[in-house]
What we know:
By secondary structure, this protein is of the alpha/beta class.
Amino acid sequence: xxxxxxxxxxxxxxxxxxxxxxxxxxxxxxxxxxxxxxxxxxxxxxxxxxxxxxxxxxxxxxxxxxxxxxxxxxxxxxxxxxxxxxxxxxxxxxxxxxxxxxxxxxxxxxxxxxxxxxxxxxxxxxxxxxxxxxxxxxxxxxxxxxxxxxxxxxxxxxxxxxxxxxxxxxxxxxxxxxxxxxxxxxxxxxxxxxxxxxxxxxxxxxxxxxxxxxxxxxxxxxxxxxxxx
Length: 229
Ligand SMILES: Nc1ncnc2c1ncn2[C@@H]1O[C@H](COP(=O)(O)OP(=O)(O)O)[C@@H](O)[C@H]1O
Ligand SMILES: [Mg+2]
């Protein structure tokens, strides 16, 4: 569903992603784990076309999207929940979700989005900036789902979220995968969250994948050792 081959990304002269290869099957959840500064956000931004890649292939379904504009990648089925959520504080909850509808041609928020996130229905007329961190994360996910993606990218969704809510978020993301059948790539530093939801874990260090394991039979200590400073 998502295929990445030999992806290289640079900021000016400085290359930070050095030839990544990985793929997501339909309905698969993959966690990409690594410490701060290892290249998780750069990878996500390059998949979305926010930061250009210098070399490589990116395919969504069968469509090659490398080099094309972000909005066309969204139309091809890619959706993105950025690190820090980046919701529109001054806009209402409903308006925030509606910004995700642009590529679908729909004019109102589909009911199933409010079924997944009942709190957003309750708060649909409130300003985004007045929501708690956990509610803003739900809003950012709802906005991404409004474009009816095939592949959902989430960049460190647990950052700044209370542990009790993190558990619930893992359950919701699994439910989204089960009900909507999409593939999810999630970057994370919290191992327990990744193990709650991911089918497979990749570890990124300095822009390279240094470890890969299915959740079944994963060596948790080894993955944890990559994440400790
Ligand atoms: N806009 C930028 N310009 C130059 N270097 C950057 C920029 N953003 C990130 N970097 C560098 O790229 C590397 C990877 O950063 P990033 O992708 O943000 O990592 P992570 O999300 O894993 O914390 C780091 O060395 C960081 O300093
Ligand atoms: Mg980051």
